[in-house]
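cache lookup: miss for this entity combination. No prior model stored, computing from scratch. Input as submitted by user K.M.:
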Amino acid sequence: MKTSYNLLTDEQQELRLMVREFADKEIIPGVKDLDIAGEFPHELYRKAFDMGLTTMTLPEQYGGMGLDIFTYSLLKEEIARGDAGFAGAIAGCFMGSLPALLSGTDYHKNLVAECLNNGGVMAFCLTEPDSGSDSASMRTTYADDGDSYVMNGRKCFISNGGVADLLLVFATKDRSLGNKGISCFLVETKSAGVSVGKHEDKLGYRTSATTDIIFEDCRVPKANLIGAECEGMAIMNRSLNRTRPTAGAGAIGNAQYAYECAVDYAKVRTSFGGKPICKFQGVGFMLADMYTQLEAARQMVWHACRCADAGVVDRKLFSAAKCFAADVGMNVCTNAVQVLGGYGYSREYPVEKRFRDAKIYQIFEGTNQIQRVIINSDICKD
Amino acid sequence: MNILVCVKQVPDTTEIKIDPVTNTLIRSGVPSIVNPFDAYALEIAARIKDVNPDSKIVVLSMGPEQAKAALKECLAVGGNKAYLVSDRVFGGSDTLATSYILSRAIARVEELEGKFDIIFCGKQAIDGDTAQVGPEIAEHLDYPQVTCAVEAVVEENRVRVKQEAEEGFHMIGVKMPCVITVTKPSFEPRYPSVKTKMAANRADIPTLTSADFTIDLTRVGLKGSPTKVVKSFTPPCKSCGVKIQEESDEASALQLCRMLSGAHII
């Protein structure tokens, strides 16, 4: 049966099938135990590294795969179909490396390349306990001290926090400057004064090593400042214009798997005289809606990614794609649980995990409320 | 090491349907894969290359143009170069004709790629299940052969092969050049990477036709094949047996005797 995937190039289709097979054989079989334990899958990360999946967006001249945003997003969806948290580990490398690759010097780019090409992990450190959507209120500070900066503060909810080798950190020079005081740095986790704090015990997304990162008089070499001082927000926005279009892909991949489980179940589960429950309209219409929503969200994310690749920065489209995909992901996973009924609620079946994982997409990478603020502010500007 | 791996593209299903009129496989609508035993053969070759990085792996297949998809898969997991042998006159060849064509094609590929030290084949293809083509290639080339290998390690001028046998394993040293056919080893073939997949997708795979190498055309195709298929059929499913699982072995044995005696068998 032909699907919209048939419109992709041969290369994109083959890469997608390669990752799908990897997810089916390597990620999905072990993911239940990892989810319960809340463990980062180091072995899986190593395998993904061998396949080039952790360096997908690193340019070829720096030893990476040099994939465009669209193809990256396509493969991220397939990885998230395997496991949302694991896709997050790979996305963490993308988000952590991109500001350096877009706004950094050769020194910064080589630092990133050296980390990722050796199987290392990166993390994007922005959020703080009292500073989520409102980045300007951050409390992590840095001060000029001779040939280095001295950083102090605490970041929280950092994806890959517990396992990262290289951190991309936003810190403020002076809190009273708000957004205009924020600068962006590369900080090696092994530096003195960097420590990993509390591991979050989360509802879902449990294979992601989400932790606090604490800076205590951490000396950061001056060369590790990306761009100029106080340019942090501009650097972040330049990067977000490329990462945000892909943000919805994880939500779609996660929900796609839940949808597939629901379809498989509805075809074999019989009721009221041996009829498969997918033949009853009550269930059948739910499946039809799940498919429709998923495909709409997928096409929207694809469109946003293609715009990003073409250099068309449509901020409200990128936010809308993230927001819509995350809402669809939550909705589809909720309905997948419903189709499986009691089994959907049981840990014995895989959809309850998908339901728990789906929630994160409405919260991170800019909450869906913040996305709506952006969309509306652009609408009102037009 | 200069290594050749022979592969076949096969339908990906255990539910192969046979056309009742022509007695041949119905291939349409069935997705195609690299014959699993051939994929293992390639993995064993790739492991030799891992140890001897200056090795080269050439992959060869005979089949229609679509078989290039299988060759591309092989190029993504260790193959350096691939050739497809394809010609209408080769259609309908049985194993003897196929192995003859391949042996002639191998001679041509050796002119382009140099003499091969090892020729790997899968033990058998999952569609025909004859297990004849590999050994026959060895005979046509007059090379020593080891069948049913699960490991192969190159030592000086010979290959140490671990051969699966009914009673265990045989460790066999074989001089090169040689033919080795591979059965299921204890490991799985490697995954491709984004990079190898993209390179394979862009690779140029030359097609060799009967005009490209020296071959006696009376020995190929349907006419050149001594095997004649009289009838293909799906054997009837055996009815389910009786499973005896009592609390203890003794009780099970007693129950078995009781049943056999009751049926007047003992």
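stored under new cache key. Chain B touches chain A at residues 76, 191-195, 197-198, 201-202 (CB under 8 Å).
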